[in-house]
Design goal:
Blueprint lengths: L2 E8 L1 H5 L3 H10 L3 E8 L3 H7 L9 H8 L11 E9 L1 H9 L12 H5 L1 E2 L5 E2 L2 E3 L3 H11 L12
Antiparallel strand pairs: 1-3, 1-6, 2-3, 4-5
The chain binds uridine-5'-diphosphate and magnesium ion.
Length: 155
């Protein structure tokens, strides 16, 4: 199994509800390594680029509002962006996150424990995690400059 890097975002609901430390605890307990971290104010352009494959979905407009913090009272939108690295990191972080729909996510996953569906139907699911190697590579490069990511040990 390959060493992978994967992008994680603690979304605005996660920050507002003080789930940042708990989320990092779960990620650290996996044995994967945190190799980059940044608090990011999410511009409209960054939000749209990040979620561009979903631009034709009916929930896209509200998804952009959600990831920019509009539903969580942030004047300056903000997420915590992280990169974790390790063996099979993409799948392992997805397993910690749980299924996209918080009602279907296993209890004990971050989304299963702390996600919710709003009365408008928005999935507020605490955390983003890259879904496959192509997505992970694109997303890590979108949120981080190469020099912001700890170099892999040589040899
Ligand atoms: N989402 C939503 N309603 C849906 C599907 C997705 O609100 O029916 C939101 C949800 O916050 C999700 C994000 O859009 O995390 C991105 O969707 P994707 O299908 O990529 O799920 P993920 O990869 O985050 O599990
Ligand atoms: Mg996805």
């Amino acid at each position: 199994m390959a060493i992978q890097q994967t992008l994680i975002l603690i979304k605005p609901d996660g920050l507002k509800r003080r789930l940042t430390g708990l989320s990092i605890d779960r990620l650290d307990a996996s044995g994967l390594e945190m190799v980059a971290a940044r608090v990011v104010s999410v511009s409209d352009a960054l939000a749209r680029e990040h979620y561009k494959s979903l631009s034709d979905k009916p929930f896209f407009a509200n998804l952009i509002r959600y990831i920019r913090g509009e539903f969580h009272g942030f004047k300056d939108s903000r997420v915590l962006a992280l990169v974790y690295r390790g063996e099979d990191a993409i799948k392992r972080v997805r397993a910690i996150a749980g299924a996209t729909n918080p009602e279907q996510a296993e209890p004990g996953t971050l989304r299963g424990s702390f996600g919710r569906i709003t009365t408008e139907g928005q999935f507020e699911n605490v955390i983003h995690a890259s879904s496959d190697p192509a997505d992970a590579e694109r997303e890590v490069a979108l949120w981080f400059k190469p020099e912001e990511i700890l170099a892999a040990p040589q040899g």
